[in-house]
Amino acid sequence: MPSLSQQQTSQIVTRLAPTPSGYLHKGNIFSFLVCWLYARQNQGRVLLRIEDLDAPRCKLEFIDATIRDLQNLGLTWDNEKIMYQSQRSDAYEEALEALRNLSVADLIYPCFCSRADLLAASAPHAGERQVYAGTCRGLSADEREHLMQERPYALRCGVPDETVAIRDLWQGCYEQNLATECGDFIVRRKDGLFAYQLAVTVDDLTQGVNTVIRGVDLLSSAPQQLYLRGLLGGGDEPLRFGHVPLFVMPDGRRLAKRSGDKGVSTLVQEYGSVQAFLGDLAYSTGLICENEPITADELIAEADLSVLRGRDEILCR
Ligand code: GLU
Fold first, then answer.
1. What does the alpha-carbon distance between residue 122 and residue 212 come to, in Å, rounded to a whole number?
2. Which of 13, 14, 19 best tests ligand 1's pocket when mutated (most atoms within 8 Å of CB)?
3. Please, are residues 159 and 181 in contact by the beta-carbon 8 Å criterion?
């Protein structure tokens, strides 16, 4: 069983990884703020990566707005050149080739199941995950050959019956058995699009990310990303995780870009200033004790991130 993440000794390198499929909402901003504050409070580096893997859904307008919102909020990044997943197909292809070349039987295999890959390009948010029954893993070489001539196919990565454990900065210990709770997962969709899990793992390795901070709905993706990272030879430096509570509406609904929840610029307008918005965000989530206008820079000294411990939801006012 892979060991729990070790105490961090090297400089923290983390990333802001927005998917520009809509305007950022308050919950997105909260995760980014926490990620940024954690790095800045620990003299770490913050890298920006635009996760526009699913290009048709990621419109230029949303990419521009995302970058502008982060800038306006004062959430700075340290990479001169922003990484765009839409420009990284060669790196993903190379990683896939490296996985294929490993001497693990059936590690990467074609899957012909219908509708299997619909969600694979985007991060699997709460309730979207299904454990694959392994149907296509059992096909003979001849059957595969034959079907590959006839039908489009996705590529899956096989998982062993192994439990992966992580010690999350705020969620504590989390364990997952790869075979029973995750299952063989898609690394390339039928339409040729690379899957989120592969892309994120490859990008984190390329960017030297050692600390992943994001919404808690992605906690269940951490074990497969660690598994892939190990297969791709990146197991040396421990990867640390911090999963941030999600915003929920009083009726229990999660905020979502696709539900038309208010974007940052509208919120800032309503609050009258970025500082008033950030002050209220930090206050209402318990990061600071008084509701007063504040900048992101000032929050580095003021915000107490330990209040996130053990919380997976925050009620949105
Ligand atoms: N791009 C993903 C999202 O916006 C986050 C992926 C990650 O942080 O690993 O949901």
1. 17
2. 19
3. no
Sheet strands (E) in 41-142: 45-50, 83-84, 108-111
The two tokens of residue 264 are 């940052």
In angstroms, the CA 212 to CA 203 distance is 12
Ligand 1 and 17: CB distance under 6 A = yes
Measured in angstroms, how far is the CA atom of residue 227 from the centroid of ligand 1?
A: 18
This prediction's pTM: 0.92
Taking the C-alpha atoms of residue 25 and residue 261, their distance in angstroms, rounded to an integer, is 6
For 35-62, the pLDDT digits (tens) are 999 999 999 999 999 999 998 889 999 9
Q: What residue type is assigned to position 137 of the chain? A: R
Could you tell me which residues are beta bridge partners of residue 157?
Answer: 108, 185
- Give 123 Cα–ligand 1 centroid separation in angstroms: 6
Residues of the chain with pLDDT > 70, as a percent, come to 90
Atom of ligand 1 nearest to the CA of 213: 8
Q: Cβ(243) to ligand 1 under 6 A?
A: no
Structure tokens that stand for 20 in this block: 């520009």
Q: Which amino acid is at 275?
A: Q
